[in-house]
Protein backbone atom coordinates (compact mmCIF):
# COMPACT_ATOMS: atom_id res chain seq x y z
CA UNK A 1 0.00 0.00 0.00
CA UNK A 2 2.83 2.34 0.55
CA UNK A 3 3.83 2.01 -3.10
CA UNK A 4 0.47 3.16 -4.37
CA UNK A 5 0.52 6.19 -2.14
CA UNK A 6 4.01 7.25 -3.23
CA UNK A 7 3.14 7.15 -6.94
CA UNK A 8 0.25 9.60 -6.66
CA UNK A 9 2.44 11.90 -4.63
CA UNK A 10 5.12 11.89 -7.30
CA UNK A 11 2.60 12.46 -10.10
CA UNK A 12 0.90 15.43 -8.43
CA UNK A 13 3.56 18.19 -8.22
CA UNK A 14 3.65 20.49 -5.29
CA UNK A 15 3.92 24.25 -5.58
CA UNK A 16 7.62 23.99 -4.80
CA UNK A 17 8.11 21.59 -7.71
CA UNK A 18 6.30 23.97 -10.06
CA UNK A 19 8.51 26.84 -8.99
CA UNK A 20 11.64 24.74 -9.53
CA UNK A 21 10.48 23.64 -12.98
CA UNK A 22 9.72 27.23 -13.98
CA UNK A 23 13.11 28.36 -12.72
CA UNK A 24 14.76 25.65 -14.79
CA UNK A 25 12.77 26.61 -17.90
CA UNK A 26 13.19 30.36 -17.42
CA UNK A 27 16.78 30.79 -18.75
CA UNK A 28 15.96 29.02 -22.01
CA UNK A 29 12.80 31.03 -22.42
CA UNK A 30 14.63 34.24 -21.69
CA UNK A 31 17.24 33.37 -24.33
CA UNK A 32 14.63 32.57 -27.01
CA UNK A 33 12.35 35.60 -26.55
CA UNK A 34 14.78 38.39 -27.57
CA UNK A 35 15.64 36.55 -30.82
CA UNK A 36 12.03 36.68 -32.06
CA UNK A 37 11.62 40.51 -31.94
CA UNK A 38 15.04 40.98 -33.65
CA UNK A 39 14.03 38.65 -36.49
CA UNK A 40 10.65 40.42 -36.88
CA UNK A 41 12.28 43.88 -36.74
CA UNK A 42 14.58 43.21 -39.72
CA UNK A 43 11.76 42.80 -42.35
CA UNK A 44 9.85 45.73 -40.80
CA UNK A 45 12.91 47.97 -41.12
CA UNK A 46 13.46 46.85 -44.74
CA UNK A 47 9.82 47.55 -45.55
CA UNK A 48 10.03 50.97 -43.90
CA UNK A 49 13.14 51.80 -45.93
CA UNK A 50 11.43 50.67 -49.15
CA UNK A 51 8.33 52.73 -48.33
CA UNK A 52 10.49 55.77 -47.58
CA UNK A 53 12.31 55.33 -50.91
CA UNK A 54 9.01 55.04 -52.79
CA UNK A 55 7.69 58.14 -51.03
CA UNK A 56 10.82 60.11 -51.92
CA UNK A 57 10.55 58.97 -55.56
CA UNK A 58 6.86 59.93 -55.70
CA UNK A 59 7.62 63.35 -54.19
CA UNK A 60 10.37 63.90 -56.76
CA UNK A 61 7.95 62.99 -59.57
CA UNK A 62 5.32 65.36 -58.17
CA UNK A 63 7.89 68.18 -57.98
CA UNK A 64 9.02 67.52 -61.58
CA UNK A 65 5.43 67.41 -62.86
CA UNK A 66 4.58 70.58 -61.00
CA UNK A 67 7.56 72.35 -62.56
CA UNK A 68 6.57 71.10 -66.04
CA UNK A 69 3.01 72.29 -65.43
CA UNK A 70 4.18 75.75 -64.38
CA UNK A 71 6.42 76.01 -67.46
CA UNK A 72 3.62 74.89 -69.77
CA UNK A 73 1.23 77.34 -68.12
CA UNK A 74 3.71 80.19 -68.54
CA UNK A 75 4.32 79.26 -72.18
CA UNK A 76 0.58 79.11 -72.85
CA UNK A 77 0.12 82.50 -71.23
CA UNK A 78 2.93 83.94 -73.38
CA UNK A 79 1.40 82.50 -76.57
CA UNK A 80 -2.02 83.87 -75.64
CA UNK A 81 -0.57 87.30 -74.89
CA UNK A 82 1.39 87.36 -78.17
CA UNK A 83 -1.72 86.32 -80.09
CA UNK A 84 -3.72 89.11 -78.48
CA UNK A 85 -1.01 91.61 -79.38
CA UNK A 86 -0.97 90.35 -82.98
CA UNK A 87 -4.75 90.62 -83.26
CA UNK A 88 -4.66 94.09 -81.73
CA UNK A 89 -1.96 95.19 -84.18
CA UNK A 90 -3.86 93.64 -87.08
CA UNK A 91 -6.99 95.59 -86.14
CA UNK A 92 -5.03 98.76 -85.56
CA UNK A 93 -2.96 98.65 -88.74
CA UNK A 94 -5.19 96.60 -91.08
CA UNK A 95 -5.96 99.66 -93.17
CA UNK A 96 -2.32 100.80 -93.36
CA UNK A 97 -1.54 99.20 -96.75
CA UNK A 98 -4.86 100.32 -98.17
CA UNK A 99 -4.23 103.89 -96.98
CA UNK A 100 -0.76 103.84 -98.57
CA UNK A 101 -2.33 102.86 -101.89
CA UNK A 102 -4.82 105.71 -101.64
CA UNK A 103 -2.21 108.41 -101.03
CA UNK A 104 -1.28 108.81 -104.75
CA UNK A 105 -4.98 109.29 -105.53
CA UNK A 106 -5.13 112.02 -102.91
CA UNK A 107 -2.04 113.65 -104.41
CA UNK A 108 -3.62 113.62 -107.88
CA UNK A 109 -6.85 115.17 -106.62
CA UNK A 110 -4.94 117.92 -104.81
CA UNK A 111 -2.87 118.60 -107.94
CA UNK A 112 -6.05 118.83 -110.02
CA UNK A 113 -7.54 121.38 -107.63
CA UNK A 114 -4.34 123.44 -107.71
CA UNK A 115 -4.33 123.50 -111.55
CA UNK A 116 -6.00 126.57 -113.00
CA UNK A 117 -6.16 125.25 -116.57
CA UNK A 118 -9.35 125.90 -118.50
CA UNK A 119 -8.73 123.12 -121.01
CA UNK A 120 -11.57 120.64 -120.45
CA UNK A 121 -9.67 117.90 -122.30
CA UNK A 122 -6.76 118.09 -119.86
CA UNK A 123 -9.12 118.14 -116.87
CA UNK A 124 -10.91 115.06 -118.20
CA UNK A 125 -7.59 113.33 -118.83
CA UNK A 126 -6.53 114.10 -115.26
CA UNK A 127 -9.79 112.75 -113.84
CA UNK A 128 -9.45 109.55 -115.87
CA UNK A 129 -5.89 109.10 -114.61
CA UNK A 130 -7.03 109.65 -111.03
CA UNK A 131 -9.86 107.14 -111.52
CA UNK A 132 -7.35 104.57 -112.79
CA UNK A 133 -5.19 105.22 -109.73
CA UNK A 134 -8.20 104.77 -107.44
CA UNK A 135 -9.26 101.56 -109.19
CA UNK A 136 -5.71 100.22 -108.88
CA UNK A 137 -5.62 101.09 -105.17
CA UNK A 138 -8.93 99.30 -104.63
CA UNK A 139 -7.71 96.22 -106.51
CA UNK A 140 -4.55 96.11 -104.42
CA UNK A 141 -6.86 96.11 -101.40
CA UNK A 142 -8.76 93.20 -103.03
CA UNK A 143 -11.81 95.40 -103.61
CA UNK A 144 -13.30 94.40 -106.97
CA UNK A 145 -16.21 96.01 -108.80
CA UNK A 146 -19.30 94.00 -109.77
CA UNK A 147 -20.63 94.79 -113.23
CA UNK A 148 -23.00 91.87 -113.81
CA UNK A 149 -24.80 92.81 -117.05
CA UNK A 150 -26.22 89.64 -118.64
CA UNK A 151 -25.56 87.49 -115.57
CA UNK A 152 -28.23 85.54 -113.70
CA UNK A 153 -29.70 87.58 -110.84
CA UNK A 154 -28.08 86.64 -107.49
CA UNK A 155 -29.83 88.18 -104.46
CA UNK A 156 -26.60 87.86 -102.44
CA UNK A 157 -24.63 90.03 -104.85
CA UNK A 158 -27.31 92.11 -106.62
CA UNK A 159 -30.17 94.34 -105.54
CA UNK A 160 -33.01 94.51 -108.05
CA UNK A 161 -34.64 97.90 -108.49
CA UNK A 162 -37.23 96.81 -111.03
CA UNK A 163 -38.15 94.17 -113.58
CA UNK A 164 -38.23 95.35 -117.19
CA UNK A 165 -39.36 93.67 -120.40
CA UNK A 166 -36.30 92.54 -122.36
CA UNK A 167 -35.30 90.19 -125.15
CA UNK A 168 -32.86 88.29 -122.92
CA UNK A 169 -33.61 85.36 -120.63
CA UNK A 170 -35.88 86.00 -117.63
CA UNK A 171 -34.23 86.85 -114.28
CA UNK A 172 -31.02 88.02 -115.93
CA UNK A 173 -29.58 91.48 -115.36
CA UNK A 174 -30.46 94.00 -118.04
CA UNK A 175 -28.79 97.13 -116.71
CA UNK A 176 -26.48 98.11 -113.82
CA UNK A 177 -27.51 101.37 -112.22
CA UNK A 178 -24.74 101.33 -109.61
CA UNK A 179 -21.77 98.99 -109.44
CA UNK A 180 -21.41 96.66 -106.53
CA UNK A 181 -18.14 95.80 -104.80
CA UNK A 182 -16.72 92.69 -103.15
CA UNK A 183 -13.66 92.23 -101.00
CA UNK A 184 -12.21 88.71 -100.99
CA UNK A 185 -15.59 87.26 -102.09
CA UNK A 186 -17.46 89.16 -99.39
CA UNK A 187 -20.00 91.67 -100.66
CA UNK A 188 -19.25 95.24 -99.58
CA UNK A 189 -22.14 96.67 -101.56
CA UNK A 190 -24.58 94.85 -103.83
CA UNK A 191 -24.99 96.11 -107.39
CA UNK A 192 -28.19 98.03 -108.09
CA UNK A 193 -29.70 96.39 -111.18
CA UNK A 194 -32.76 96.01 -113.35
CA UNK A 195 -33.81 92.44 -114.12
CA UNK A 196 -35.48 90.96 -117.20
CA UNK A 197 -39.14 90.19 -116.57
CA UNK A 198 -40.56 86.75 -117.45
CA UNK A 199 -42.14 86.61 -120.90
UniProtKB/TrEMBL annotation:
GO cellular component term, pick one: cytosol
GO MF annotation: an example: protein homodimerization activity
Biased composition annotated in UniProt, kind: Polar residues: 1-14
Disordered as annotated region, ranges: 1-52
One GO BP annotation of this record: protein folding
Main location as per UniProt: cytoplasm
CDD domains: GrpE
Domain of life: Bacteria
Protein keywords: Chaperone, Cytoplasm, Stress response
Positions with biased composition (Low complexity): 15-52
Cytoplasm keyword on record: yes
Annotated family: Belongs to the GrpE family.
Subunit structure: Homodimer.
Protein name: Protein GrpE
Organism: Caballeronia arationis
Gene from which this protein is expressed: grpE
